Amino acid sequence: MSTQKSRISDEEINELVCKLQSLLPESRRRNLSRASSASKLLKETCSYIKRLHREVDDLSGRLSHLTSTLDPDSPQAEIIRSILGS
User: Fold this and answer.
1) In the Cβ-directed half-sphere of 5, how many Cα atoms lie within 13 Å?
2) Over the stretch 16-44, which tens digit does the pLDDT of each residue have?
3) In this structure, are residues 41 and 17 in contact, taking their beta carbons and an 8 Å threshold?
4) Which SUPFAM superfamilies would you find in this protein's record (predicted)?
5) Cα–Cα dist 17/13, whole Å
6) How large is the angle between the packed helices 38-69 and 75-84, nearest 10 degrees?
């Protein structure tokens, strides 16, 4: 593959940055001005993803604790299994 083919144009980078910014919640987007750099956007996105990972870990731990305290034949356990698809 030639070097020219593997390069991403500035226009493509700008388009990808805009798409990435649109994926952030409104509250996170407010922290970024229109003139914010791609670097700032990437840092904000990484921070947001890390926060989401912590939330998932927390919820997984809470769900694990909850399911370990339930009678496996209880209606509540059945509801949780149906929600989780297991």
Assistant:
1) 2
2) 988 998 898 888 877 776 667 888 888 98
3) yes
4) HLH, helix-loop-helix DNA-binding domain
5) 6
6) 150
From residue 68, alpha-carbon distances to 62, 65, 74 in Å are: 10, 5, 12
Report yes or no: 49 and 60 within 8 Å, Cβ to Cβ: no
Name residue 40's amino acid: K
74 token code pair? 């209880």
Residues whose CB falls within 8 Å of the CB of residue 44, separated by 6 or more in sequence, listed in order: 24, 28, 31, 32
pLDDT tops 70 at residue 52 = yes
Which amino acid belongs to residue 16?
L
Tokens read off for 83: 């929600």
Tokens representing 17 are: 């940055």
